[in-house]
């Protein structure tokens, strides 16, 4: 992809309302995942591994933790004199200064897009966990001559109005002839993964038209409203991909990492997932500690029992404590003889000795950051 200059644009806040508990003090992009990662790590790594060296991250609110995580972009090899990583805070001529959709967000960074010497733009959200070669998407886009190429995955599922899923429909020539937003449907669907490729000049025209007509939403005002006039094509992704749009899907996506096949597909040797590096000691296990089928990050101290769970950096598990089917984030302290099952515990939570918290795999219990139970 290096022979053709490509600009990457990452939307960091587009789905915060669907994860209100966990995104109360952070962006969707900086939600912890998989023991040591943040959701944005997968999007950035996909772009970097595909040769994209100029990436802008659009923020809206609560982005301090995101800035702390990204820093200069060095961990993704994006700390460069020209291009590299650029964090784009909200800008709007309106009084609010907060954008109301992707098209509105793109209008706020018009100057950034115009200054870029890229020919193509890859746009992606942070709510999809996958490891995709974007250079193949770009190659198909160029070969097909499409105005817009959307990445999708075929899934058999039951959709409803609250599912936050965009479904693509194709004609016999592979062109998108309908776009449905969260339809009531049961069966196989072509679900849009919020990754799109478009030529920069065409994107600039779409943004200019959106500003002139006061249009805010890329999905409603471009994909749905203009699918008949634009040549929109699809790129089918056949690998593992999961969209994080609820606490249930977040919990399931983390639990999927306990499957070795998913691990091998998400973290292949030739396409690593980069993240902020922290130099911590390896996990320490007590004499009576038991740990089975779990992901345990550096810096953990385990003296109790851990089963089918994910422990982030620096978690302490006291003697006699039992953790099962749970996600324990960074810096948590689980007291002696505690019992946790199907629980999501945010950062820096203290669980007192003898406490018992139990949820269900379809409705895990969530404990807010910094709480004491």
UniProtKB/TrEMBL annotation:
Its EC number is 2.7.7.27. Residues 288-356 form the Glucose-1-phosphate adenylyltransferase/Bifunctional protein GlmU-like C-terminal hexapeptide domain. One of its GO terms (molecular function) is glucose-1-phosphate adenylyltransferase activity. Residues 22-158 form the Nucleotidyl transferase domain. Pfam families: Hexapep_GlmU (PF24894), NTP_transferase (PF00483). It comes from the Bacteria. Keywords: Glycogen biosynthesis, Nucleotidyltransferase, Transferase. Coiled coil: none annotated. The keyword Ribosomal protein does not apply. The keyword Transferase applies. GO terms for biological process: glycogen biosynthetic process. PANTHER family: GLUCOSE-1-PHOSPHATE ADENYLYLTRANSFERASE-RELATED, GLYCOGEN BIOSYNTHESIS PROTEIN GLGD. Belongs to the bacterial/plant glucose-1-phosphate adenylyltransferase family. This is Glucose-1-phosphate adenylyltransferase subunit GlgD. The lineage of its organism: Bacteria, Bacillati, Bacillota, Clostridia, Eubacteriales.
């Amino acid at each position: 992809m290096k022979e053709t200059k490509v600009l990457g644009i990452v939307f960091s806040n587009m789905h915060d309302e669907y994860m209100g508990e966990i995104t109360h003090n952070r962006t969707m992009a900086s939600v912890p995942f998989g023991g040591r990662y943040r959701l944005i790590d997968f999007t950035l790594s996909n772009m970097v591994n595909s040769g994209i060296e100029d990436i802008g991250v659009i923020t809206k609110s609560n982005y301090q933790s995101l800035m702390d995580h990204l820093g200069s972009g060095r961990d993704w090899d994006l700390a460069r004199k020209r291009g590299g990583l650029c964090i784009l805070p909200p800008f709007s001529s309106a009084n609010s200064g907060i954008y109301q959709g992707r098209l509105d967000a793109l209008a706020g960074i018009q100057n950034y897009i115009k200054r870029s010497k890229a020919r193509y733009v890859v746009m992606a959200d942070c709510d999809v966990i996958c490891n995709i070669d974007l250079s193949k998407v770009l190659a198909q886009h160029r070969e097909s001559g499409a105005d817009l190429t959307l990445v999708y995955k075929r899934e058999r599922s039951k959709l409803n109005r609250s599912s936050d899923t965009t479904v693509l429909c194709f004609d016999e020539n592979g062109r998108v002839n309908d776009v449905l937003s969260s339809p009531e449907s049961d069966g196989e669907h072509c679900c849009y993964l919020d990754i799109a490729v478009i030529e920069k000049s065409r994107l600039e025209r779409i943004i200019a038209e959106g500003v002139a007509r006061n249009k805010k939403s890329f999905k409603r005002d471009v994909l749905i409203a203009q699918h008949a006039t634009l040549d929109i094509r699809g790129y089918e992704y056949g690998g593992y991909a999961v969209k994080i749009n609820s606490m249930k899907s977040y919990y399931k996506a983390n639990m999927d990492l306990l499957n070795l096949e998913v691990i091998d597909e998400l973290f292949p040797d030739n396409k690593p997932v980069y993240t902020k590096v922290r130099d911590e000691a390896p996990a320490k296990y007590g004499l009576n500690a038991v740990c089975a089928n779990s992901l345990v990050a550096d810096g953990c101290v385990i003296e109790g029992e851990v089963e089918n769970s994910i422990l982030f950096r620096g978690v302490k598990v006291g003697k006699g404590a039992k953790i099962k089917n749970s996600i324990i984030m960074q810096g948590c302290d689980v007291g002696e003889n505690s019992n946790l099952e199907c629980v999501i515990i945010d950062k820096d939570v203290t669980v007192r000795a003898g406490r018992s918290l139990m949820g269900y795999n379809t409705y895990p219990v969530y404990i807010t950051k910094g709480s004491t139970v």
